[in-house]
Design brief:
single chain; about 150 residues; mainly alpha; Arc Repressor Mutant, subunit A
């Protein structure tokens, strides 16, 4: 009796491919912004602040879909870097409002530069048309997942 099983089609699924490629890309992006003393989640929090008005830690946790305690830890680090400011809401002293500073914006610009360089490396094997189609498809998936699409 042969107990050897045939390989499954799991590696051909969108979920598996996006998950594994996403993990590799996240690690590469993290390595590139490590010199800025940032992690991808820091960049995500600063991005959220750059796309809207000042927000409370609680509001950001909801917007990002993470635990409020994670936002507090990320904000603590970003505040030490001078990337964000925390201000007590005069209308509700329990509420901390976060805003991106000029230095935070500069760090975010550096994160974007690192991401664009990585994009160029990752998509070097694609034609311009394939890259456009790929970005459009990722935008649709992001929108359906309730994530920012960059548009």
């Amino acid at each position: 009796m042969n107990d050897v099983k045939k390989p499954t089609g799991l590696p051909k699924t969108v979920s598996f491919r996006l998950g594994t490629v996403g993990s590799v890309v996240a690690d590469r992006f993290a390595a590139r912004i490590e010199t800025l003393d940032l992690k991808p989640k820091h960049a995500g929090l600063m991005t959220a602040l750059s796309h809207g008005e000042a927000a409370s830690q609680q509001e950001l946790a909801g917007r990002l879909g993470v635990a409020p305690s994670l936002v507090v830890a990320l904000a603590d680090h970003l505040e030490r870097l001078g990337a964000i400011e925390r201000v007590r809401d005069p209308g509700d002293r329990r509420r901390q409002v976060l805003t991106l500073t000029g230095h935070g914006y500069a760090l975010l610009v550096e994160c974007e530069r690192a991401a664009r360089e990585l994009d160029d490396e990752l998509t070097a094997g694609l034609t311009a048309k394939e890259r456009t189609t790929f970005l459009r498809a990722l935008g649709v998936l992001a929108a359906e997942a309730g994530l920012p699409t960059g548009e």
